[in-house]
Design goal:
Shape: elongated
Oligomer: single chain
CATH class of the largest domain: Alpha Beta
Number of strands: 18
Strand content: 15-25%
CATH architecture of the largest domain: 3-Layer(aba) Sandwich
Number of domains: 2
Structural class: alpha/beta
Largest sheet: 8 strands, parallel
CATH topology of the largest domain: Rossmann fold
Strand order of the largest sheet: 2-3-1-4-11-5-10-9
CATH superfamily of the largest domain: Putative sugar-binding, N-terminal domain
Low-confidence stretches: 1-7
Length: 419
């Protein structure tokens, strides 16, 4: 059965096993501008396009959970069709996961089941089939000692094999990064390794583009990835001109979390300005056109800084002149980007870099909107051709290692600030 995800008349159903899980999944839909309700009952007719049903079945017996979910799905599917059904599960694998998947599977009869419980933004990842929290297998964390729902196993492939007694197709990170090798036609059950948000998006893209009837099973992380594909938001752009150690740590954390980070080769840019500029800009535009958020930096780490300073010394370029050249290049790049790509907003680190870019955008006024965190401020341009463009500024020496990455995400999800 072919499934069409872009039909405005189609309906989307999410089944969650607890209230907070229902909410953190529903908000991923709301961030795209859609109205969505959470209900505790199973109405005979759902009028809304998007709905989440909280079954409150996480802590009851497996048998009772199976019957509850089965009856809800059965009553709903009698009256209406859903192009999309999502089984929201706990990102730490608590609850009656197998029983509830079986209940939906029996009535909905999907062609394939995609299982990806990871939520990288919260430190929940899956490596070699083993589900982890902050790098530690779930079975070795406090969740294994939960008084009501202890997690006894952390290998998602083994969990599915034991539950379904069928072959489980395990998609490793290596295979996930080579999508040409993955075909969703070798079985019914697919369990995915995930380390980053980009991994989630690859899974979502693969599933959506297959046009198969899918039962999606995951945490709030997977549904966010799905809606990144179904309804992509404009990418966010980050510019880091600061060479502080704090900025370097923030860049490395963002890169570790899967954010695209491109480093200017300052030496080549000064030696071959036109050629290197065009090559770099081409690479940047390509990523942004694919709706991928991107951070551009002039200095990723100490090694780069030493290299650039040695180059400047060799060429008899004083520090002030070098800094001026770099900020001018960054300002020119941003202006060139915005001529071709519409972004959700820009994150700027480093005072000199920030003002250079604002001047390149010919903005004379900005309105202060809110304090994102101490020393990190959200503004929007209030005049000129980029009027309304959100900007976040931060001094290079401020903030913890997560602030750059989290700000880039928040810019992309601008609806949270009503901007």
């Amino acid at each position: 059965m072919k499934m069409e995800y872009n039909n405005n008349e189609k309906k989307y159903l999410i089944i969650a096993d607890d209230f907070t899980g229902a909410n953190d999944t529903a908000v991923q839909v709301r961030k795209r501008g859609y109205n969505i309700k959470v209900t505790f009952s199973s109405p005979l007719k759902i009028k809304e396009k998007f709905v989440v049903i909280d079954t409150e079945t996480r802590t009851i017996s497996g048998k009772k959970a199976y019957e509850t979910v089965k009856n809800i799905i059965k009553s709903l599917l009698k009256k209406q069709d859903f192009s999309f059904i999502y089984k929201k599960i706990d990102s730490t694998l608590r609850g009656n996961i197998i029983e509830e998947i079986k209940a939906i599977d029996q009535i909905y009869k999907p062609e394939i089941i995609i299982f990806a419980p990871a939520f990288p933004k919260l430190g929940r990842i899956t490596q070699n089939g083993v589900h982890k929290v902050e790098g530690i297998p779930i079975s070795q964390t406090e969740f294994a000692k939960d008084p009501i729902n202890p997690v006894k196993k952390d290998n998602i492939v083994e969990i599915l094999q034991e539950g379904f007694q069928e072959e489980i197709m395990h998609i490793s990170l290596k295979n996930l990064h080579d999508l040409d090798k993955i075909k969703l036609n070798k079985g019914k059950y697919y369990a995915f390794d995930v380390e980053t948000t980009e991994d989630i998006q690859k899974i979502a893209k693969m599933g959506v583009e297959s046009n198969k009837k899918i039962l999606w099973v995951g945490s709030a992380g997977l549904i966010e990835g799905i809606f990144d594909i179904l309804n992509p938001k404009k990418p966010s752009l980050g510019i880091v001109g600061s060479v502080s150690e704090i900025s370097s740590k923030q860049l490395l954390y963002a890169k570790k979390m899967g954010m695209n980070v491109l480093e200017l080769d300052v030496c080549k840019m000064l030696d071959f300005p036109e050629e290197e500029y065009n090559l770099f800009l081409e690479k940047v535009i390509l990523l942004l056109k694919e709706q991928q958020s991107l951070i551009i930096t002039s200095c990723l780490n100490k090694e780069t800084l030493k290299k650039v300073m040695a180059y400047a010394e060799k060429k008899d370029i004083v520090k002030e002149e070098l800094a001026k050249c770099v900020k001018n290049i960054l300002g020119k790049i941003v202006k060139s980007i915005l001529k071709e790509i519409e972004v959700s907003g820009i994150f700027l680190t480093g005072g000199d870099t920030a003002i250079s870019i604002i001047k390149n955008l010919e903005a004379n006024e900005l309105e202060i909107l809110l304090e994102v965190s101490v020393g990190t401020v959200l503004l929007k341009i209030t005049d000129g051709i980029y009027k309304g463009l959100p900007i976040i500024t931060k001094a290079g020496s401020f903030g913890d290692e997560k602030i750059l990455y989290e700000s880039m995400i928040k810019i992309k999800e601008g609806i949270l600030w009503n901007i």
